[in-house]
Amino acid sequence: MSAQVQLPSQVEAAVVRGADDQFALEKLELSPLGPFDVLVKIAGVGMCHTDLALRGPAGAPLRPIVLGHEGSGVVVAVGSGVGKVTAGDSVVISYDSCGACGSCRSGRPYFCRTWFDLNTGPAASRPHATLTDAEGEPVNNSCFGQSSFAEYSVASHHNVVKVDPELPLEILGPLGCGLQTGAGAIVNVLQVRPGQSVVVFGAGAVGLAAVMAARICGASAVVAVDLVEGRRQLAREVGATHALDGAAPDLPDQLQRITSGADCAFDTTGKSAVIATAVNALAQGGTCALAAFEDELRLPTQQIVFGRRLTGVVEGNAVPDVFIPRMIDWWQAGVFPFDKLIERFPLREINEAADASVSGRVVKPVLIP
Ligand SMILES: NC(=O)c1ccc[n+]([C@@H]2O[C@H](COP(=O)([O-])OP(=O)(O)OC[C@H]3O[C@@H](n4cnc5c(N)ncnc54)[C@H](O)[C@@H]3O)[C@@H](O)[C@H]2O)c1
Ligand SMILES: [Zn+2]
Ligand SMILES: [Zn+2]
């Protein structure tokens, strides 16, 4: 760390403590940086559905915690072992990985053997600078190796991606999770080819990024399915050739009429009944990719036996250092208009932002500290 940099000793952050699911801003104490830490002054941070899941019962073992895992900002200081970025660099922060296991060394950090520990574990195994509250008690700041619902985030050299300082930094954070997951599902997992048909279930940030990426890949039919009319409208605006009501009783017939059996399907709802519809909509030989987990899955085995495939998606199976610059190129070329999904909120209005996301009114809140 360079000697002349004055580190903040206090950080304002949105903390989740109790079962009431509310975020509350607190001043927290920051400890000195570890060797591989990258301290980032957050310019903006997206709110992903996973943050909302982790503020609920699923996140109870992690509390008290600073959530937030779609941060972007400017590097303030780096640990002694960091060579990848330096103070003053603009970065997007993505999911964390260890860089050392067999998966990481073979170029698949999304399958890092310590992925859950590093990204959603009670305490990440990597030593890093920590936060403590006014009583001196620790507050978890390991959410996806960033905990960026805060003024400052302690990221690592594994999960920061340097970007052009001329870009609108405050809206780039969602490229690090939700947008990467949707676009990567299409490009890296389903590997959609020109002329193919794609059905996307759920038109949130993940699903809409998939819609945009499917058009980029040259899909001839890109069908979005959602329960909310506003989201179906947005899907049409960003490139869906069709947008259907997920509650329509004749949805399977509509999908059959449009695609004659889809080549690819992508589920972002995590609901067993929706996934069964998705698999049923496939042609033989087609593949359905899953990004969300809610239910136990029940499927007629016959559909799989006759050559349909089911697979999973972790962060778009994307290498952030490669894929985030690629999405930025698409955005600059006008074919990946993710900014249409974003509404900005001050960080102090984080509970209102969460309400707007849950109600479906806002697809991707971006919080500005
Ligand atoms: N696998 C990963 O790496 C990864 C990464 C990011 C997010 N996720 C998960 O992906 C999911 C989607 O994230 P998001 O931010 O887009 O969430 P979101 O809540 O904004 O989007 C989900 C959409 O599904 C729609 N929906 C719900 N039930 C439906 C039904 N029966 N039929 C059709 N549409 C229905 C909702 O109206 C909503 O628009 C979440 O579960 C999130 O946790 C996974
Ligand atoms: Zn996420
Ligand atoms: Zn690893």
Q: SSE string, helix = H, strand = E?
A: EEEHEEEHHEEEEHEHEHEHEHEHEHEHE
With helices defined by DSSP (H or I, 4 residues minimum), what is the helix count? 11
Strand residue percentage: 25-35%
Shape: globular
Q: Point out poorly predicted stretches.
A: none
In round numbers, the mean pLDDT is 95
Helical content class:
25-40%
Number of domains: 2
Could you say which small molecules are bound to this protein?
A: nicotinamide-adenine-dinucleotide, zinc ion
Largest pleated sheet: 7 strands, mixed
- What's the CATH H-level superfamily name of the largest domain? Medium-chain alcohol dehydrogenases, catalytic domain
Q: Which CATH-level-2 architecture of the largest domain?
A: Alpha-Beta Complex
Task: Describe this structure in a few short sentences.
This protein is α/β, with parallel strands linked by helices and 369 residues long.
Can you describe what's shown?
- This protein has about 375 residues and is an alpha/beta fold.
- The protein has 2 domains: about 10-175 and about 340-369, Quinone Oxidoreductase, Chain A, domain 1; about 180-315, NAD(P)-binding Rossmann-like Domain (Rossmann fold, 3-Layer(aba) Sandwich), CATH 3.40.50.720.
- About 25% of the residues lie in helices and about 25% in strands.
- It contains 11 helices and 18 strands.
- It has helices at about 50-55, 100-105, 115-120, 180-190, 205-215, 230-235, 250-260, 270-280, 300-305, 320-330, 350-360; strands at about 10-15, 25-30, 35-45, 65, 70-80, 90-95, 130, 140, 150-155, 160-165, 195-200, 220-225, 240-245, 260-265, 280-290, 310, 340-345, 365-369.
- Strands 3, 5, 6, 9, 10, 17 and 18 form a 7-stranded mixed β-sheet that branches.
- Strand 15 (about 280-290), helix 9 (about 300-305) and strand 16 form a beta-alpha-beta unit.
- Helix 4 (about 180-190) packs parallel to helix 5.
- The longest helix has 13 residues, at about 320-330.
- Bound molecules: nicotinamide-adenine-dinucleotide and zinc ion (2 copies).
- Nicotinamide-adenine-dinucleotide binds near residues 227, 231, 268 and 360.
